Amino acid sequence: MPPAFTAEEKTRITRLLLETGQRLFTSQGLRKTSLEDLAAPAGIAKSSFYVFFDSKEALYLELMLRQSAEVKRKVIDQALLTDPAPREGLRRFLHATIEEISTNPLWRRLMTHPEEMAAVARKLDPARVTSMADNPVTALTDFLTGQQAGGELIPADPAVIIGVLQCVLLMPMYAERLGDPALYPKILDLLIDLVVAGLTPQKE
């Protein structure tokens, strides 16, 4: 049986688990991170990990939940929804999200390794993942379906459109392969313009 922990110990160990999870999940990913890797820096046995989290996926989700409100504020509330024109909103969303993933290691990991979020959803109750009030992906999907209903967006599967947007968001990972670094901002701007123009046809 795992040992009993005082309230102070639980607070300290939880903080250490979150810090270790943030570091390991972003550097080596969910699959390669073991319970031993997570528990050792906190000074607890693997079996004691379950006193704090049901699984390593639950720890991953907790880290994501702690950041989701701020991420949504930046990329949805202050970017996507700040202009009534969907084309401009999507343009601002892509630029804001690229900025976020360049400074936020966990969300960069989520954008470049979506299979990890799928693994979390499979392990946990999917409703808990998709019904988060501050889930940026849910907010983006709601925006896309709303724009489609108003005829402002092409009638493609929203999941496909999100996939197209994710392709744009992968651009920073390959910037060094594009030759002259001075051209990268211009390449990115033109790519974003072309993508949002293709998704939001002008009405006659």
* Low-pLDDT windows of residues: none
Write the element-wise H/E pattern from the N-terminal end onward: HHHHHHHHHH
Q: What name does the CATH topology of the largest domain carry?
A: Tetracycline Repressor, domain 2
Corresponding CATH architecture of the largest domain: Orthogonal Bundle
Number of strands: 0
- Report the span from N to C terminus: 70 Å
- Class by helix and strand content? mainly alpha
Give the total of domains: 2
Number of alpha- plus pi-helical segments: 10
Q: So, the CATH homologous superfamily of the largest domain?
A: Tetracycline Repressor, domain 2
Tell me the Rg in angstroms: 20 Å
Structural account:
- With 204 residues, this protein is mostly helical.
- It has two domains: 1-53, Homeodomain-like (Arc Repressor Mutant, subunit A, Orthogonal Bundle); 68-199, Tetracycline Repressor, domain 2 (Orthogonal Bundle), CATH 1.10.357.
- Helices cover 66% and strands 0% of the residues.
- The protein has ten helices and no strands.
- The protein has helices at 7-28, 35-39, 56-80, 86-103, 105-112, 114-123, 126-130, 136-149, 158-169, 184-199.
- The chain is elongated, with a radius of gyration of 20 Å.
- The protein starts with 6 loop residues before the first helix and ends in a 5-residue tail after the last helix.
- 24% of the residues are buried.
- The mean pLDDT is 88.
